[in-house]
Write a structure and sequence with these properties.
The protein is built from eight helices and nine strands. By secondary structure, the protein is of the alpha/beta class. The protein has one domain: Spore Coat Polysaccharide Biosynthesis Protein SpsA, Chain A, CATH 3.90.550.10. A seven-stranded mixed sheet has the order 3-2-1-4-7-5-8, with helices on both faces. Strands 6-9 form a two-stranded parallel ribbon. Strand 2, helix 2 and strand 3 form a beta-alpha-beta unit. The structure holds guanosine-5'-triphosphate (GTP) and magnesium ion. The site of guanosine-5'-triphosphate has 20 residues, from strand 1, strand 2 and helix 3.
């Protein structure tokens, strides 16, 4: 039985955008539950009107479900804005993100960082889910953003990260689709946030289809960088 005295002080909100993830969402939610058993936490699933059983499963497992069908970025921001925790976490629903890494994402915010971002490309990180062409594209965007915005990121298009509630409120986010991760990084630098990257290992999506299209979304990310230069 859980003793409330064991709970860590800061409540945690884990926000998960979903689109047709019925084969993954149960394992993601139960994985989070195991790792966060000593925390006070909520899980917010932001569903883009899935045609499968994603919503039913998420609700049955105790997640709060809200809806947004304008794209992954829009869903993520809507969920983060609705979150009630002091530490906010964004996580994918396809089993790519390891729940055990939640602890490092949380403790770095508790230590005083404003944003803690998983990186697949620092020592200790990795990916079994990124095709060669996307790896090259990601490297290009990392260098471009670092050069233009004087930043030191090692990863750019990866969505496993945490924020303090106050820091998230400072970001001016407009991207509705897969440009959101890049916009978050840029806006975090522009807002002067104290940023920490930690190594993260991205597993292969366990079930279902990925929704990102390399060429279309690569172009979206490039446009995101250009739009943010003028802000
Ligand atoms: N609400 C909502 N969620 C989305 C949308 N598109 C993707 N997602 C979710 O966002 C997360 C990341 O999307 P993925 O399709 O896995 O993108 P990816 O990881 O870059 O692509 P893969 O490597 O192919 O898995 C997953 O949890 C998706 O279910 C959308 O339009 N709306
Ligand atoms: Mg994925």
């Amino acid at each position: 039985m859980r003793n409330s005295k064991e709970f860590r002080a800061k409540p945690i909100s884990v926000v998960i955008p979903t689109l047709n993830e019925e084969g993954n969402i149960a394992n993601v939610i139960s994985g989070i539950g195991k790792v966060l058993r000593n925390y006070k936490y909520e899980i917010i699933v932001v569903d883009g009107h899935s045609k499968d059983k994603t919503v039913m499963i998420a609700k049955r497992l105790g997640a709060r479900v809200i809806y947004d069908n304008l794209g992954k970025g829009s869903a993520l921001v809507r969920g983060l804005n609705k979150a009630g925790g002091d530490v906010l976490i964004s996580m994918d629903a396809d089993m790519s993100n390891e729940p055990k890494e939640l602890i490092a994402l949380i403790t770095n915010i508790e230590k005083g960082y404003d944003m803690c971002a998983g990186s697949r490309f620092m020592k200790g990180g990795g990916s079994e889910d990124i095709p060669f062409i996307r790896k090259i594209g990601n490297k290009f965007f990392v260098h471009l953003v670092n050069a233009i915005f004087r930043a030191q990121f090692t990863d750019m298009c990866y969505g496993y990260r945490s924020f303090s509630r106050t820091a998230f409120g400072k970001l001016r986010l407009k991207e509705k689709g897969f440009g959101i991760e890049t916009e978050i990084n840029i806006q975090a630098v522009m807002a002067g946030l104290k940023i920490k990257e930690i190594p993260s290992f991205e597993k292969k999506r366990e079930s279902g289809q990925g929704k990102l299209s390399t060429v279309r979304d690569g172009y979206v990310i490039l446009k995101t960088i250009m739009k943010n230069m003028g802000r």
